[in-house]
Amino acid sequence: MKQRKKLPMIGAVRRITWFGRLGSLAAWLVACDPNPTYTREIAPLLAERCAGCHRTGGVAPMPLETFEDARANAAAIASAVESHRMPPWPPDQGDSCPPLEGDRRLPEDDVSLLSSWARGGTPRGNGSAEATEGPSSPRWIDDVSVTVAPPEPYNPEPSADTYRCFLLDPALDHDAYLVAYAVGKAQGVHHLHVWSVDDDSQLAKAEELDAASPGGGWDCLDDVGIQARHLTVWGPTDPVRRHPDGTGMPLYAGKKLMMQIHYHHAREGGTYLDLQLADEVAHPADILTIGPAPFILPPRTPETTVQALTVTTKDGLLWGVRAHMHDLGSRAKISIVRKDGEACLLSIPDWDAKWQLMYFFEAPIPVASGDTLQIDCTYDTTSKTEETLNGPTASDEMCNANFYVTW
Ligand code: HEC
């Protein structure tokens, strides 16, 4: 009897163990699946890390919102993530420079997922094939205070580089602060600057330039033509530009804005800005810009470094920095020199003129009167047979830094 009772029990235990093993084998297979599927791993990953820019009407050339989008671009996706071209994030702060907000670099596990899906036959998987919006990719401003666009349409020449200035009227009836903005119809926008025209005599000059030029706005390559207060610069890197919490750029009632756009082979114009404003901020911000004395870069030289600096005259907080060079730039470093030594602020070891963001720090950095803010721009002119001068056109070079500061 004893034996009879025992035997079925042993059998039951064995069965449970066997099914248990099958279950964990299935879980193990899913975890190590060499071919991730679109619906299971890829759609959420593209939504969170790519679709903020790669969406219909977004800043990137093609949307990555559906299974068809992803499949059609699979080879390009694999190559872009394996080479770390995408998502674009040129700074490398290492241990000696402060951490930056919104680091976009993909963890290696995600690079492997995308590349094995793209190179493994792009399986679809089951379930919905729409990429859903990811939490860290705010696509647009939900709370737009005012949309500004040039009053007259302007269509850039598709085969050319065009620098065009426009007056914009936010029609403010009270002073406010710019806390975030998004650029609409931004395809082909290489970069965009915005100023506030606080001085009415400068506004009259801008209106004259506008009236004298046919079509909306006026050409403004070398010189925007007037003096105005710089508010911001944007490149196709940010779906939405948000200033750090508690800060904003002041805008004054009744004053107009001026926008300069560099269109590079743009297929359409109509670029506009969605502005998010606040009535109050704890820290009104200012943009400090530095640039070097005129310089000449020798040809056929792998490394030439140019430096620009300024000595601050006030105490304040530094929230963000941006470096600016053109295509010969190879490396940029922005630093602060205090009484007790030099500290790195931003390091871009492999410069790419396409990605010129204002990078904000995770925590603002104190600046004291007498500290030096400086940029070191390094160029590689091995491809050049003649000297390169500093200047605004694409065949010239520049070396500038912008600092987002509050005093
Ligand atoms: C911050 C905006 C932004 C994000 C985020 C972004 N891209 Fe892009 N992407 C762009 C822009 C802009 C271009 C066009 C670049 C150019 O003109 O050279 C581009 C180009 C590409 C290209 C074609 C050119 C190339 O270099 O191969 C691919 C493929 C691509 N992106 C894939 C991705 C993938 C995959 C992700 C997410 C893992 C991603 N991108 C995230 C903005 C972005």
Please outline what is shown here:
The protein has helices spanning 2-31, 38-49, 67-72, 74-82, 108-119, 200-212; strands spanning 146-148, 161-168, 176-184, 189-197, 218-219, 229-234, 240-242, 247-251, 256-264, 272-278, 283-284, 286-290, 296-297, 304-311, 316-324, 329-338, 341-348, 359-367, 372-379, 388-389, 400-406.
Helix proportion range = 10-25%
The figure for the number of domains is: 4
CATH superfamily of the largest domain: Copper type II, ascorbate-dependent monooxygenase, N-terminal domain
- What is the rounded distance between the termini? 91 Å
Summarize the main sheet.
6 strands, mixed
CATH topology of the largest domain: Jelly Rolls
Give the names of the bound compounds.
Answer: heme C
Strand content: 25-35%
Query: Which term fits the overall shape?
Result: globular
What is the secondary structure topology, with strand pairs?
Blueprint: H1 2-31, H2 38-49, H3 67-72, H4 74-82, H5 108-119, E1 146-148, E2 161-168, E3 176-184, E4 189-197, H6 200-212, E5 218-219, E6 229-234, E7 240-242, E8 247-251, E9 256-264, E10 272-278, E11 283-284, E12 286-290, E13 296-297, E14 304-311, E15 316-324, E16 329-338, E17 341-348, E18 359-367, E19 372-379, E20 388-389, E21 400-406
Parallel strand pairs: 8-11
Antiparallel strand pairs: 1-10, 2-5, 2-9, 3-7, 3-8, 3-10, 4-6, 4-9, 12-21, 13-20, 14-19, 15-18, 15-21, 16-17, 16-19
Helix pairs in contact: 2-5, 4-5
Bound molecules: heme C (HEC).
Heme C binds next to helix 4.
